[in-house]
Amino acid sequence: MATTALPQEAAHAEAHELPFIRKYIFSTDHKIIGIQFLLMSLAFLGIGGFAAMLIRWQLGFPDVAIPGATILPETMAPGGYLLPEFYNSLVTMHGTLMVFFAVMPLLVGVFGNFLIPLKIGAPDMAFPRLNMWSFWIAVPAGVLMLSGFFVEGGAAGAGWTSYAPLSANSEYSGVFLGQQLWLLSLAVLGLSSILGATNYITTVVNLRAPGMTWFRLPLSIWALFITAILVLLAIPILSGAAIMLFFDQTIGTHFFDATGGGQPLLWQHLFWYFGHPEVYILILPGMGMVSDIIANGSRKPVFGYHSMVYALIAIAFLGWIVWGHHMFQSGMNPTLGMGFMISTMLIAVPSAIKTFNWMGTMWRGSIRFHVPMLHAITFVAMFVIGGLSGIFMASAPVDIFIHDTYFIVAHLHYVLFGGSLFAIFAAVTYWYPKMFGRMMDPFWGKVHWAITAVAFNVTFFPMHVLGAQGHMRRIYDPNQYEFLQPLQGTNTLITIGALVLFGAQFIFMGNFVISWFKGRKAPDNPWDDNGVEWTVHSPPPHLNFAETPVIYRAAYEYSSPLVEEDYLPQTRNLGSDSGPAAKPAAG
Amino acid sequence: MRHLVACSIIGVLACGGGEGGSDGGDDAATVAPLGTASINGVVTFDGTPPANPTIDMADEPECVAKYTDDARDPIVSVTDGMLANVFVRVTGGLPAGPYPMPASPAVIDQDGCLYHPRVLGVMVGQDLDIRNSDPLQHNIKAVPTEQRGFNISQPRAGMTTTRSFNTPEVMVPLECSVHGWMNAYLGVVDHPYFATSGADGTFSIPGLPAGSYTLEAWHETLGTRTLEVEVDDGGSVTVTLVFGSSTS
Amino acid sequence: MGSFLDWFLPPGASTFAADIDRIYYAVLIITGIAFVIVEAGLVWFAIKYRARPGRKATYTHGSMRAEMIWTAIPAVSVVALGIWSGTVWNNIKARDSIPEGALEYAVMVSQFEWMFTYAGRDGEIGTADDFTLRNQLHVPVGRAVVLRLQSEDVIHSLFIPAFRVKQDIVPGMHMAVWFEATQTGRFEIACAELCGNGHTTMGAMTTVHSTAEFDEWVASRPATTALR
Q1: Could you tell me if the ipTM is greater than 0.85?
Q2: Looking at the predicted structure, is the pLDDT value of residue A173 above 80?
Q3: Closest alpha carbon to A107 in A30, A27, A41
Q4: Would you call C222 an interface residue with chain B, using a CB distance cutoff of 8 Å?
Q5: Is A49 within 8 Å of A505 (Cβ atoms)?
């Protein structure tokens, strides 16, 4: 099934030097599109983080005006104090921006684009022009989302889950245009994701270089492939639900509004039927890339490669049948609790396999602590906490107490920040040389890593304790409750941690930007890696490979006894290797 | 206004609407008074006023502290036979506009978990200052039928929020979603010739040109009364409006 | 501030609080062990297997036996935990779990108030001696009570931390949640589902009385409908 044929359009483009606008703006080059997604989603990461700082200030220092916030209009923060409605908008937009416009595009948009063709030995994506569209559809989606802040009534304020009918009927929230923009934006962004996913799946199935069999694929590509399938199955559900809710808002349908015969729980079922696979969309690519990096840093093959693949598939499959665990207390028939509980708990099994296999990969290695490796180890350490805390809420009776508390907030941030974002830091620092042809500064990289790792834990670990005391999430002023008043000190500590965490990201940003222009020129293979992408120049030329690479072996042949060096690239012919060895497995 | 700045940044989006709402307000501010006649009046209540219900305020100790007795919902507020909270406005006989804008904003205060005043007139485009004098969060929800309302909160004592309306509507209910008993009524009128009867039952509509007018008086539970009045320049007439448990 | 590493739950005050807490602490111990193994292992490996001159990594692709072990142990643990949790869950939340003869309350919620309607002296909801109080729930100790919940507008969630009670209230649906308080005192009620601008203000108070005190208190109430 693998083919060496160049996509037609790419072949045509090769013929002449492209003008600037086609080369860097409306580019069909997967590498440029990956970098475009990177810049866009890092910007959204910053905006989403800033929203979190406003939220944290309100919780940490409720009696102190936010410095400089008097420039905000009186519909947001009169006198520098957030209004509850603006607080709700911030909570909503922080979640939405981070999930849909930061972490998801960082993992899927950036690395799906940049890595898939390079790592499978393809010149570009199967559909380069669709690929360009997937980026240029995501941009207006982002503009629509942010514009909510500037319209009358404010931005959407019903939480990133937008539970109806609070989200369906503006009478209940005072938000009308903002909520509609939120829904339109997600529907538009959904189109972008679907185009991207179609492309990834087709590319991995059809464009693998000769000899790149399924079980020679790096785990990063496996993870991105499985993620793309999840995207294709999950996102249309969200798009459909968003359009229905948009109709509830605008033309008076009542899909989710009980006053007109609708069913609010229908929204929750649709949202979480998308939303739980989404959780794995947000972590699987990270798991895959971290596997690559840990193998490289440990100078060892991945421990249990095959079970790592099967664990990815198992997690993705289980992710499909557990959405009800978000709804244990929702009024859904409690009889369903048992089934959703067991299926949810079972996710611990493939997760444990992955965790112990990462440790197994480090075991008896010869570990190089380059910056990507530090982030990758931190990923494992933090993901474990997020995974383990998930077992608490998977138990429906325990969930009675911790549902909708800060325990959930702690859990999801250990997975989404401790997991996904550390994986993103690992991946960005790892593939930066290949993207930009320059090395990031390792000293400032380590400083950023150290502060981020500590501040992250100061910020999110105490949230478990808040949750264990019953501290509700999305609460503007916890001091309204006597039982939460003793927790003010913890809240203040968390806010200080969050401010440091946010501040540390400026180190990353500085390192990122300065290295782009001033960084040391990157060699082709700075990390002594086996991957196909490291056999070409940094950055790779248009269409990547002068001639189609041939793959002779599995992805992680580090410290192989066959060679002197401690790595053995997938493309290296030892003489004893025969042509495109194994037949590529049927797609 | 920063809102407008933000709007121009996102130029493609629908902006403005009710919150800005000062369309024509600048014109109105520069219009001289149309005349010097005035209508004065008194609203009386005939019969025994119904008892106002007590409010279950027990969960709001900060508000309870502002009352010596059980707090009551002042639906029918009668003092010595005089009826307060009757909204009186001119509904007929006015010359064509523009009309002068009242010099100061209309003010409504939340104090002791009740609105003060309970009934208030506001001209289209006139600022309505909503103040919170209670050390707790109020949520102000305007639920008009002719225009888009608003739903805003005031978490702190001493806060003032300004809103306005762009379409005449009598009356626009104002509710507090935190304290279900809190109700107020706003008479939104496209001219300044309106008044609300005070605790002593009196009201006054000054600045009218000479002419004959139709007055309409509104009370939230006792219905409406209409009255024809004629006034001369510089003169004033005094009218009496009678509401009562038997006549409604 | 001193409590920021305190993972203990606040004291429970209902009959099933201990059952829930027991699972919580069991999970805490199991996950605590896994946590220590993984974190300590990572640190230990990072130190022990750090690259040094002359050191070469061991070339291995894994060990089926090791992988079987770390597949089987979590699998057995979580299935056992799931079955245990399921039993407790059914005792608390299953639709037929409401005890016979529980004292009924009708609870109507809206942005942002709790209206508790009491059965009054005759112990029956829907009769003339019912009365309604805003944000105040009074219950007798040692007797199961069932709250019949309805929402007027958006989704709210009844959360009484001390009783380990949480139930979303979905407009258009009739929900019921029950509990039996085991000690007298005052216990806060919170709304746990984002319900609008005033979500944070939507607190209420449960007062648990001794049986005699409760009966006396009910007898002293006139039938009223609270103003809203």
Answers
A1: yes
A2: yes
A3: A41
A4: no
A5: yes
